[in-house]
Amino acid sequence: MNGSMTVLRILPEIIFTITGVLIMLVDPVMPREANRKPLGWLAVFGALAALVASLYQYSLPDGTAYFGVVQTDAFSVFFHVLISGIILVSALVALDAVHPDTENLGELFALISFGAVGMLLMTSGVELLLVFIGLEISSISTYILAGFRRKTAKSPESAIKYFLLGSFATAFFLYGIALTYGATGTTRITDIATGLATTHDLPIAVVGLAFIIIGLAFKVSAAPFHLWTPDVYEGAPSPIVGLMSTAPKAAAFAVLLRIAYEAFPQLQSHWMPLLWIIAAISMTLGNLGALRQKNVKRMLAYSSIAHAGYLLVAFTVLSADGVAAASFYAVAYAVMNVGIFAVISHAGGYEDRLTLIEDYKGLAYRSPLLGGAMAFFLLSLIGIPFTGGFFGKFYVFASAIHAGMIWLAIIGLINSGIAVFYYLRVLTAAYTKPLDTSPVLNVPRASFPLLLALFLTVSVTLILGIAPDRILKGARNAAETFPILSSQQPPLNATPGAPSMAELSHKP
Amino acid sequence: MLNGSILSLITFLPLAGAVILALLPRRGRIIQWWALLVSLATFVATLHLPAHFVYGQSGFQFVINAPWITHPAIRYHLGVDGLSMWLVVLTGFLAPIGVLVSWKAIENRTKEFYFLFLIQQTAMLGVFVSLDLFLYYAFWELTLVPMAILIAMYGRNKGPQAAIKFFLYAFIPSALLLVAILWLYAKTGTFEFTHLQTAIAAGGLGPQALFWVALAFLVAFAVKVPVFPLHGWLADGLTQAPTAMSMVIAGKLGLYSLLRFNLGIFPVQSREFAPWMIALAVIGIIYGALVALVQRDMKRLVAYAILSQVSFVLLGIFCFSITGLDGAVYQIINEGVSGGALLVLLGILYERYGTFEISEYGGLSKRLPHMATLYIITTLSLIGLPILNGFVGEFLVLSGSFVGHHGWVVAATTGVILSASYMLWFIQRVFFGPPSTMVEEKPGIDVNFRELATLWPMILLMVVMGVASSYWIRGIEEGIRPLANAPVTQPMAQSHATSLPTQATLRKGRQ
């Protein structure tokens, strides 16, 4: 019984591992000319099974496994579901974008599955060394995936850049772990807090935490550690960019949340201002950078930096609402970003036929469906109501203002106003009449996997914007798994609709 | 039974129609007919409101109030009062007209056009009926999207630029509006309009902070109206927009929001802003009229005429007298009907001659006598001729604001004279005098049946609203009376406070 329970706690990871191994085993025995797209379907079904397994994990009682290094609780399962979902959609998108004769197709899907294992371990690991191993697994697969179009100039460049800077950042992360161990005598996230209470080497712990934050800030491409992002996104194949701009980031945010709120709650006064600054400059630099871009993928790279900033705003809130808002925003951002990259990788294809914003002129005329989907995701990224992007932003800034961070909220919302400008440039391009020579006229018809991917992302984005109650509840439960937040003072609003004059009259 | 769900029906009927429309085949005029059917059905549904409105009963009617999102506490709360009821009906009335004027004007991409057109209807109706600030803000932002895309796709040659300009002008102040709404929520724990009203009237929130919050509300709405120095988007947006959209781009949304939220939630702060707003209103009236006088493009002329018209409304609003507010709301409706009719007429003329350049025209009245008649009636309504609707509104605004603001009102009255001069001069140049070469060369086709069906209801309404204004004023007055009353300040706050401890103790008991 106990043994089976242990296995269940890493069930999605196991499923992804088996999927990846299976693909690697089948690929070499297939005839050389055979269509390798079925391998992609294998990856899709693997991701689907992992998604179901993640949802099943909600029914497990909270607890740890394997000598207490893995923990499933409302928080890790929330992110398990999210990451498995992203992988599912990304596999569909990749399946749509590639050709049967694309090189190393089997390995592409195997690497996607293996990367997912690492990301899932990051979210459920409560032992920093395991988290580090998860980080490495996910990073190495994404390094390779970024350079998958070997014969172009940009793709290997992007992979090498990503690899060099990425290993540097992971080294920071590892060094941070070592320093933390030196200060507290443990690398288990849940024990660090107790270790901190008794340590005599608090400055070392602070430095360790700073290094950990640097390492993770690199992974989520928060400013000032964001410089790699535009180059890497520009060079990597579009379906892969959709994946690597969302799933590893969600995992890294989960780790950052767990470390900040579970391991280092005592050092709040240190990390809070740090994240405040990172959030403010990420939003600002991301949006200002995006304004100048002509290349759609570079623009979305800067936009992802800005979105990392919005998400970090929620970190500064220091309440269950903040963590819930951050988790919710991670979902909203991931869904809309995967969605827009689904459109881009179909329109541009695996070979990146459309790169500039101008190239998208007339997309809505060529295919109303693709144009409409693109418009929808851009509007969600802008933060138009009834989409996930709006509710995410709303929730983040509502909790920030509730915590008294008015200035951060004003900076953020003015930034979201600036952001409108560059998103609209793409939107109006898509809705401008194409010329006879416009490259969009060669965009192929939407395939079944793409339709499925778009259906999933559009409907989830709408659910997040119109009926977010269940997902919000999941995010709140996730937030309350952190001991420091579970017995928090009354939340943002305890009694819906109750007249608030009572509160007001208590004030002098 | 229907009373509880009628507002949801009205609001979401166009949306449901849009979804079905997306599935219809692009064949013949199926899409146009469907859009017409949906918008007519919506209009008929809006007529349920005045038919079942209970006069003499304060507060909101046809209310539906259900929990939507439990945390943060957001409710699906809709309702109308005398202020918003006629605006809902007006929106419903203009929808089929919008479809009819686009019938021939929009030939390509009809499905996209009517899909977005119907979504725009839902968004606008939602703005007028929402009583939860979150819901309201959601609809408010949503109104931008179809409008911007429609301007970009179906506008004249500079559509995309105008669309971006319009969107940015409206979106950035809205971001600050969101900060203000969230701040209110953080302090009071509610998004509900009535709860916020009582919470703020009770005092307890710092006047300094409330000033900034009220200012954020004011600026966001003022851009949408637009108020004088913030009107930069209007001329381009209105000129580029297709007729069906230029009819609803300015005026009612922003003005309604000012009345409902600025005056409703921040009575004290609104009165602090009043001197400035009155000054801006009068400047807007005169500036708009003078700029309209020198325009060469008809649509730009109408854009500045509208700036002048909405500034009149603003003058009426910020005088805080019942007469002035009555006139202001009446003028909002007039602006929709008469301004809308003029834009429809311009669209019809453009369909025939393909230009808005005034100097190209001349002597049209001999060729198109029916059209000339319609133009003249509309013009007379706009410049405020007695027995037409414009007179009632202008008269009420001016007489309501005269008390206490002599100087400003005298200045505003010159606006009435100026409006007569730019409109009549425009009519004279286009319809009278010797026929221009263009008019000579092109075949002049007078208004056809579809166009008459579009315009006659509007003309009829101008006359009825001019003669039987009391029918409308009755409802409007119920809605605006609370806004005209002097704000509840310190002494009243005390009396509120006496009722508070009961609730406070209740709450304590629960914990």
State the separation between the terminal residues of chain B, measured CA to CA. 37 Å
Number of helices of chain A: 23
* Shape category of chain A: globular
Rg of Cα set of chain A? 22 Å
Which class best fits the helix and strand makeup of chain B?
Answer: mainly alpha
**Unreliable stretches of chain A, pLDDT < 50, 5 or more residues?**
488-508
Largest sheet of chain A: 2 strands, antiparallel
Major sheet: arrangement of strands of chain A: 1-2
| CA gyration radius of chain B, whole angstroms | 23 Å
Average residue-wise pLDDT of chain B: 87
Residue windows where pLDDT falls under 50 for at least 5 positions of chain B = 490-511
Number of domains of chain A: 1
Oligomer: heterodimer
Sheet with most strands: strand arrangement of chain B: 1-2
Structural class of chain A: mainly alpha
User: What about the largest sheet of chain B?
Assistant: 2 strands, antiparallel
Mean pLDDT of chain A: 89
Percent of residues in helices of chain A comes to over 70%
